[in-house]
Design a protein that fits this description.
Blueprint lengths: L12 H16 L4 E4 L6 H10 L1 E4 L9 E4 L6 H10 L2 E4 L3 H14 L1
Parallel strand pairs: 1-2, 1-3, 3-4
Length: 110
């Protein structure tokens, strides 16, 4: 069987920026960075980041006074506001293309 790799493969620009920023934040922090769910849909990259200091949590109950990252796929605005109130620091890793679409979807849902 012959396997062909696409000429242009890899991460999209939003994922690239998020991973690079996550690594920079990990390197500059003395504590774990919490994130609800995986940063991106790539198990290999997620395992590497988790082994460094990006710790996946199941809910936001444990974030008080901690550093938290927001995954590339975003979260509802009310959750983001709650994170800003309760956490030590919020690292926004939402893809710019996803962030652009969220208000459009909200407008059409109203």
């Amino acid at each position: 069987m012959k396997i062909k790799l696409a000429e242009h493969s890899g991460f999209c620009i939003g994922v690239c920026k998020a991973v690079i920023r996550a690594v920079k934040e990990i390197n500059s922090q003395d504590e774990d960075i919490l994130i609800k769910g995986q940063l991106i849909h790539n198990p290999q990259t997620s395992r590497i980041l988790e082994s460094r200091a990006l710790k996946v949590i199941d809910d936001y109950r444990t974030i008080d006074g901690k550093v938290i990252a927001v995954r590339t796929h975003g979260i509802p605005a009310e959750h983001l506001n709650e994170l800003k109130k309760r956490s030590k620091k919020v690292i926004n890793l939402i893809c710019s293309k996803v962030a652009h679409v969220h208000p459009i979807v909200k407008r059409y849902l109203a």
